[in-house]
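Changelog-linked ticket: adenosine monophosphate example.
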Amino acid sequence: MGYDYDDQNVFAKILRGEIPNTTVLETDHSLAFRDINAQAPEHVLVIPKGPYVCFDHFAAEASAEEIVDFTRTIGDVAQALKVDLGYGGDGYRLLSNTGAHGVQEVPHLHIHLVAGRPLGRMLCRDQP
Ligand code: AMP
């Protein structure tokens, strides 16, 4: 049991500067960059800089400073894209695919922020 972080995953390589990214925001503990295969007019990934596999790993082991930084960065991205409700924006969706059933492709925690059009229902209703 426990979390086994693979430092060869693509987001670890982005954090080390080994492959390029289109940065939206960067802080001491977090990086936000555009998804290479956007599913909506706005599609940004927010990741912690620390080696966390997924959300439950981060929630269990990240420092309070990292958690605050990450949470604020997600909100700041929504503001930067002008989709936040505080600005009067039209809103957005956050999601974090986790593990096999969540169909997580990259094993480094990332929150997808998608926006820019009506996004439809969250899940299909034809399967429980
Ligand atoms: P998932 O792990 O299924 O939540 O999704 C991983 C996401 O990472 C997908 O939306 C990919 O399009 C995105 N992605 C993969 N490689 C890159 C990259 N080099 N730069 C930006 N986004 C990427």
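Closing comment: Example verified and attached. The chain has a mean pLDDT of 96. DSSP finds four helices and five strands in the chain.
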